Give the backbone structure.
Amino acid sequence: MAKSLTDATGETDGFPQDRWETLLKLIPGVVFEQRTDLSFASVGPGREQFFGSRSSEVAERSDVFLSCVHEDDRVGLLSWLRKLTPSMGLVETTYRLVHPDTGVIRYVADRRIRTDAEVELYQGVWLDQTSRIRAEKRLTYRAWKETVSTVTSGLLHDFNNIIAGIFSLSELYHSQITSNHEMHAGIGQIKASSMQAQQLVRRIMELNREVSGERNLFNLESLIADQLDFLKAILPRGTEIKANFTGEELPVRLDDVGFRQVLLNLATNARDALGDGGRIEIETRRHDMGGTGPAGILPSDFQYPAGSVEIIFRDNGCGMPTGVAERIFDPFFSTKEPTRGSGLGLYNAQLYATTNRGRIGVVTTSGVGTTFHLVLPLETFSETILPVVEEESGAGQRHHLLLYSWEDASHSDLVAEMREKTWQVLTLSNAARVREYLTQSDFPIRLIVILRITLDEDADRLLEQVRDEHPEIRIAVITMGDDPEQTPRSVNERADIVLHHNMKLSTMIKKISDLIQ
């Protein structure tokens, strides 16, 4: 006859009951004895991790155990149990258990043995295999993603070359006809659309990079606005996305690739929670003074440091049940199937916030929605003064530049090439903000690049003011659309160098580099 884990005398193979219970707690997994009719003779300690508030019922009611087995695995498990015989020895299968309180899905390896044909009793152990299985699936997905990334990058490169040809021809024809020509508006639209297509391709290629880039200066709201089209592609059709921005230039020094991935992870997290009439709100707030986080935020010690900016990502989805919100930033924690999530998205968001001297927290209400609060430090520029002084006399120095354009140029080829040379580039599209930054005594700008379109009064006024008020700063003007021979004399006189946007990019960078030296 097979022995039960605990016999009637309270002794277990010579072990006193209390020592046996202690030993069971040290064993990974949860030991159990289950009869062939699926009722349990005993269930060891640790069962709460699988069955939560119903753990005390599992040993008494077989239907509780079956109700926790994932509905897609229930029939397969019952079929497997019916086929077991004592002659098979140690057997194992894997199925999913759904936590009755939190809905968290765990992959469990069920290893059991029936040693005596006359006793209809299995002795076994449940082992949590969730982390291993999710890691395996993530590695498989990553390998596939790398393959797709390689193919996509090649296709994007070829497509970009085609668009570049369309842009160049349309720009050439557009510059050779007068504004009252019947084709002027049409060719202008082709030129503008092809430029937008090039920018979109560039953004996709940047998003496709697996390795995050170095930290650089960005205007936070421009960075978020640039990502809205991708968020729309992730979220369910019909989802409303509302951006509530301050309208200010919010300079941050961060890794833009990682930041985009954080936004996409937050959108992915919200996707499955949204129903009909889904709405996403992205809000930015500047915190010049420190303060405590909103009521109910996790972690509870969340605070806003002075001189920080807050990104609020809010959805009106189903929210999270009790017990889930406390664990969402844990690695491999997920309530989704492994094919729909690795359990690392929010964990990586937390790592990103920490790496960039920020914090992330969450407020959630079941049936109402979830709000993430990401706080990052605003760039004060004061911390870069000493490195600039130290580097001025050495090779490989890191120059600090400011680029002004009538539109957001943070993702232009020019800025990308500058950052490849490890130059720190801050892009602004508001001339008043440029002048405001330059009035800060600790602003270490060596050179200003002004992108100037035809009859650009804001750019011309900025050029005049910078030259008069900050004569120590070098100024490079890049004209867009003008014939170089028709550039106003005042621009040529005030700028240290005037370049035309048709100039080869490498030549342009070389001339700017020589100017800084």
